[in-house]
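Researcher: Re-running this chain for the archive, since the previous output was lost when a drive failed. Same request as before.
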Amino acid sequence: MSQNTGENKMGIVPVNKLLISMSLPMMISMLVQALYNIVDSIFVSRIAETAVRAVSLSFPLQSLMIAIASGSAVGVNALLSRSLGEKNYEKVNKVAGNGIFMAILCYLLFVLIGLFAVRPFMYSQTGVESVRNYGVSYLTICCVCSVGMFTQMIFERLLQSTGKTFYTMITQGTGAVINIILDPIFIFGYFGVPRMEAAGAAVATVLGQMVAAGLAMFFHFKKNEEVRFHLSHLKPDLRIIGQVYAVGAPSIIMQAIGSVMTYGMNLILEAYGVAQTAFGLYFKLQSFVFMPVFGLNNGMVPIVAYNYGAGNRKRVIDTMKYAIAYAVGIMLTGLVIIELIPGQLLGLFQAPPELLEVGIPALRIICISFVFAGFCIVTGSVFQALGNGVYSMIVSIARQLVVLLPVAYLLSLTGNVVNIWWAFPIAEIMSVAMTVFFLLRINKKVISHIGEQVQS
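Model: Regenerated structure tokens:
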């Protein structure tokens, strides 16, 4: 039986309506994810400040795991959407099968990391024994039991690539709700469950991911008629894998660079003790602002990739304009909220006076960078969707490794932790300048030529 060859909605529905309909479910599900990340830390903060610090110090390795999972899935998403636009259904199925094969390999890698690398990783960041113990137990579970996360990520991208983002909202929302419900049960030991403290937060997280993965697989096989791969499509195809990672590798590197930056900042802040906790809580809170923008990106990328493949330049440009406008609006809203009530936000985590003293100026200074970040995030994703993810990678390396970490280190030499936070807005200003340069370049070399082959 032949696959559906009718026009996909990404080529015909008005752009603004399409972007909202595809992005809104993702933005909602991302908001729910941000909520459960914050709820995790709120419950953990009831144990001790050192437990929250341990979860914060776990973030770079968790972020690396997410980087590899989501970066691989982004490559699959972009290539699959482009293949749909070209009506190449055999390639669509090969891309899906190879994406699942790579997800399995990535999971096995993190099983090994969880078993052998977690302890030295935690010990390198802190000498506080309780922080080390909480961190090792929490992070080992997150890595060794990450099969749900890798499975969920790839099957959700298969749904997103065909515009079925409503189902991914259900999968992510369900996983998040389960996590939130299980958190207090496993952390504090309710209903006969042993009290597991920080490790309980990890157990709740991986169980939520496994349920979400099961749902994503169910929706894919029941609803995703445009992608019908078989076991034979799981056979590794080096050409397909190369094309996936031509887009996905820069995304992985960009997010991995974020892990390196966070790890480096933790080392710089170690001398200030509670500043590590403040920095970790900032990341929890900022996720409530950034996650909707990432959801917007997830809805935008397949639209841009599809219309790039279909040769429709106007729809590519219109999608970019709307996405940038919405992203900047979201970031400005987040900036205003954090500037107005930083103390109340930190109070959610039982912040003691010494944490508030460090954390309030940290939030207010770092969030200045929000003014620029929305534009940079969306534009970077456009680069990836158009097959030029290396531009995003260059900007990310320059921002976080060339500017942010060295500036933060130099400012730390003043002996005043408040000065360190200014490294973030300084780095973001540089990021804007580079992003504009690359946008002008890709407009001249790629965007302005979209559709010429189709029209000729």
